[in-house]
Design a protein that fits this description.
With 691 residues, this protein is an alpha+beta fold.
C-alpha cells in the first residue's frame, strides 16, 4: 500500500488514516488517477481534482474536512448527486424488508437480503434459531407514489436451512435463511440483494451514508443527507455516523453513496464502543453500526465449520460478483466483477452497435494519414471473443468504435503500483532496445513505452509489433461489458499511433483485400480489459485498444480456436480470488528468426501471456503460451484456414517466457505458480492450471 505523504492532509481531509484515505480516494475517483497522483491528492493537492468527472469530484468533496474548496470543485454545496443515485437507491431498497412476529405481525426490526437466500439483521432482533422460526420478513411494505400501500410479500424465516448469530455486545448480527413465500408469488431472490464484502475502500471519515429502514415498524423509509461518517470505533468493529433512526430501524443496512453496504445499523442509544480509533470519545448524538468488513471476516472464519448445504449458502454470500446492490438477472449496482453481465443505468455502454435492416452500412469516419480504413471482413468475425454491451438492434447501419482521443500527453499508461506491490514493466535486452520504436518527444524518464489509458506498449519497430503490452485490469470497476454474447462486428476502425512512424507499426494495408481472409487484426490488450473507471475513461480506454501498436497478425478467429486463451483473464477475476479483483497482464508475440512472412511482415508462431495478481497478500504470477504454428503452416500452404482445428494453449512458467522472448521480468519468476521445471502443459480446461 502506498503510504500517504504530504503535510496538508490533516488540514484538508476529515479522514486521518492515510492508507484508508488513499483507498477511499481510489474508489471514488474510479480509476482516473494513477497511484502517484492518488498519493498527491491524499496529501492535499486538490488541483488534481479539476480534470475528474463530476461524479468523482463529488466523491472527493464529500471527504473534505471543510467546504473551503467545494465551490471550485463541484459548486457551492454538496447537494448534487448523480441521477443514477436514485436508481441505485431503488435497487438497494428493494432488498430491505420488515422483520415481524408470526401471528400478530408485530414489527421487531429491519433486515436486508445479502444473497439469494440469506437475510442479515441484528442479533437483538433475531437472537436465536427458535425466535427466527417464529418470525417473518415482509418485502414491499412501503407506500407507492400515489400514497397507496403496496401489497407486501411475506416469507417465513427458515433457520433449519441456515442460521448464524453473534451476540449484541459483539457483532450484534444474525444471518438466517429465508423460506418460501407465505403471501405473494415472488421469490426472495427476486427482490435483489446487497453484497457482503470486506473491501477496505467503501467508507472514510466524512463520507455520507444512507440508511434504508422501517422506523417504528412503519412503511419503508430512507434517511438521506445530513448523515456523515464520524469515525470508527477503537476496537475496529463499529462505524459511527449521524442520521435519523428510531426503534424498528435495528438491522437496517447502512450504505455509502455508491450504495455499497458499509455497516449494519445497531444502536442509536447504548453502544458497544465508547472511544473512536483516534482516541476521541464517541459523540452522544451519533448512531452506531457494525462494520460489514468485521462481519465478513468473522463469517469467513466460520465457513469451514458449516456443514453442507449450509456452507454453500454462506459461500455464495461471501463471494459476491459486485460490491453494490444487485437485482436478479445479473443487473448490478456501481461496479461488477469481470464475470458479470449487463450493467445498470449507472454504467456506460461503449458504442459498439450492430444494426439490421435494408439500409446499407453507414460509411466509416474519414481516415486521416494516421487512420486506417475499415476492414472488408464479414461482420460475423470475432477478434477477441468479448464484446461491449450492445443496445437493441436498430435500422440504419453500424456504429463503429470512436477515434482515439488526440491528446496523447494526458495518457498515464500502465501503473506499476496498481497491485499495491511494485510490478515494473519488463526490461528489454540491449539488442532489443536498439530495435524498439522511440516515441516522438519521449524523455529518458518516459522510456520507450507508448502510454495509453490503463495500458502501455513497447513496440518492436523492426517487426512492426509490440515486444510486449502491459495492462491494469480492475474487475470491480469494469464498465458496460457483456461477456456472454461474444458478438463483435469486424467492421472496426483501427488507427496508427502518431507518436511513431507508420512504417514501424502494422497498418491496414497488411490486412485489407485478403482473398481468402487469412489474418485478423488481433488485439493483444483485449478491448474490454482497460475499460474501467469513470464512464469517460472507460470509453477512452476501449478506443485506445484500436491502435495498430496493440495489433498482431493472428490467424482468423484465433480466439475462437484458442478458447482458453480468450478467457484466461476472466477466469482469474472470477475464480482465482484475486484481492479486490485487480490483475496485471503482460502479453506479446514470440519473435522467431524463421517466422514465415505475409505481405513482407514476419508472422509470429506463438504468443505469450503472464497474469499477475495478489492472492492471500502475496503476488502470484501465472504464464501461458499459445501456438498457431501448425495452423499457420497449413494455412499458408492451402491459402485457407478452414477446418484447421484449435489453437493449442499451454501452461508454462515465467522463466520459459523470458527465455523465449529475451525479456527480463525482474522478480516475477519467484512469484510463479508453476515453480517446477517441467515441460509445458497442454491445457484443455483452465481448471487444470496451477493458479
Amino acid at each position: 500500500m502506498a503510504r500517504v505523504r504530504g503535510r496538508n492532509r490533516q488540514a484538508v481531509f476529515t479522514e486521518q488514516d492515510g492508507d484508508r484515505l488513499y483507498r477511499r480516494l481510489r474508489a471514488v475517483t474510479g480509476g482516473d488517477l494513477s497511484s502517484d497522483q492518488l498519493t498527491e491528492l491524499a496529501g492535499g493537492d486538490l488541483s488534481l481534482v479539476e480534470d475528474l468527472p463530476f461524479t468523482a469530484r463529488l466523491g472527493v468533496a464529500a471527504l473534505l474536512k471543510d467546504e473551503g474548496g467545494l465551490e471550485k470543485m463541484v459548486g457551492s454545496t454538496l447537494d448534487y448527486v448523480p441521477i443514477a443515485y436514485l436508481d441505485l437507491a431503488r435497487m438497494a431498497a428493494n432488498s430491505v424488508g420488515r422483520v415481524v412476529t408470526d401471528g400478530r405481525r408485530e414489527a421487531v426490526g429491519t433486515g436486508t437480503m445479502v444473497s439469494t437466500r440469506l437475510l442479515l439483521t441484528n442479533n437483538h432482533v433475531t437472537p436465536d434459531a427458535a425466535t427466527a422460526g417464529r418470525q417473518l420478513v415482509q418485502f414491499d411494505y412501503e407506500l407507492q407514489v400515489d400514497g397507496v400501500p403496496k401489497a407486501p410479500t411475506e416469507f417465513r424465516l427458515d433457520p433449519s436451512a441456515f442460521f448464524w448469530t453473534s451476540p449484541d455486545k459483539e457483532l450484534d448480527a444474525t444471518l438466517v435463511a429465508v423460506g418460501p413465500p407465505l403471501a405473494g408469488t415472488r421469490t426472495a431472490a427476486s427482490f435483489g440483494m446487497s453484497s457482503l464484502t470486506a473491501a477496505q475502500d467503501k467508507h472514510a471519515e466524512g463520507d455520507f451514508v444512507t440508511i434504508v429502514q422501517h422506523p417504528q415498524g412503519d412503511f419503508k423509509q430512507v434517511a438521506l443527507r445530513e448523515n456523515r461518517v464520524i469515525g470508527r470505533g477503537k476496537a475496529g468493529t463499529t462505524l459511527h455516523y449521524q442520521g435519523d433512526t428510531l426503534p424498528g430501524s435495528s438491522g437496517s443496512p447502512v450504505f455509502n453513496d455508491q450504495f455499497e453496504l458499509v455497516a449494519l445499523h445497531h444502536a442509536g442509544g447504548g453502544r458497544n464502543e465508547k472511544v473512536l480509533e483516534d482516541g476521541r470519545p464517541v459523540p452522544d448524538e451519533s448512531n452506531e453500526g457494525i462494520r460489514i468488513s468485521a462481519i465478513v471476516a468473522t463469517l469467513r472464519e466460520r465457513l469451514d465449520e458449516q456443514s453442507e448445504p449450509h456452507r454453500s449458502l454462506l459461500a455464495e454470500a461471501l463471494d459476491p460478483p459486485s460490491t453494490g446492490p444487485r437485482l436478479p438477472g445479473g443487473l448490478v449496482g456501481p461496479v461488477e466483477s469481470a464475470g458479470g453481465t449487463a450493467v445498470s443505468a449507472a454504467d456506460v455502454t461503449v458504442p459498439v452497435r450492430i444494426s439490421f435492416g435494408g439500409a446499407a452500412p453507414t460509411a466509416a469516419p474519414l481516415a486521416t494519414d494516421n487512420a486506417a480504413t475499415t476492414a472488408t471482413a464479414p461482420a460475423s468475425s470475432i477478434d477477441d471473443g468479448d464484446a461491449f454491451t450492445t443496445p437493441a438492434p436498430t435500422t440504419g447501419g453500424i456504429e463503429r468504435n470512436q477515434p482515439p482521443d488526440p491528446d496523447y500527453a494526458k495518457r498515464r499508461g500502465y501503473d506499476p503500483s496498481f497491485l499495491d506491490v511494485a510490478v515494473p514493466l519488463p526490461a528489454l535486452s540491449s539488442k532489443q532496445a536498439k530495435d524498439a520504436a522511440v516515441p516522438e518527444g519521449a524523455s529518458k524518464k518516459d522510456g520507450l513505452a507508448l502510454r495509453y489509458v490503463h495500458f502501455s506498449v513497447v513496440q518492436n519497430a523492426k517487426r512492426r509489433m509490440p515486444f510486449f503490452t502491459a495492462v491494469n485490469i480492475d474487475g470491480k470497476r469494469a464498465r458496460g461489458i457483456n461477456r456472454q454474447t461474444g458478438e463483435v462486428e469486424a467492421a472496426e476502425v483501427w488507427f496508427c499511433d502518431p507518436r511513431i512512424p507508420n512504417e514501424q507499426q502494422l497498418t491496414q494495408d497488411v490486412f485489407e483485400r485478403q482473398q481468402p481472409r487469412l489474418f485478423d487484426r488481433g488485439h493483444l490488450v483485449r478491448r474490454l480489459d482497460p475499460a474501467w473507471g469513470s464512464a469517460e475513461t472507460a470509453v477512452r480506454a476501449a478506443n485506445d485498444t484500436f491502435h495498430f501498436t496493440n495489433c498482431s497478425l493472428q490467424i482468423s478467429a484465433f480466439n475462437q480456436r484458442a478458447a482458453q486463451w480468450a478467457g484466461i483473464e476472466n477466469y482469474v477475476l472470477d475464480n482465482a480470488k484475486a484481492e479486490r479483483k485487480r490483475i496485471t497482464v503482460f502479453s506479446g508475440p514470440v519473435f522467431g528468426a524463421d517466422d514465415p512472412e505475409y505481405r513482407g511482415v514476419p508472422v509470429p508462431k506463438e504468443f505469450w501471456k503472464i497474469l499477475v495478481r495478489i492472492d492471500g497478500g502475496r503476488p502470484r504470477a501465472t504464464a501461458f503460451l499459445a501456438s498457431q504454428e501448425e495452423q499457420l503452416r497449413k494455412g499458408l500452404e492451402l491459402e485457407s484456414f478452414d477446418d484447421l482445428g484449435k489453437v493449442e494453449v499451454f501452461h508454462t512458467n515465467v522463466s520459459t517466457v523470458a527465455a523465449r522472448t529475451g525479456l527480463d521480468f525482474g522478480d516475477l519468476p519467484s512469484f510463479d505458480t508453476r515453480q517446477v521445471e517441467a515441460a509445458n502443459l497442454r491445457i484443455t480446461s483452465l481448471d487444470d492450471v496451477e493458479w
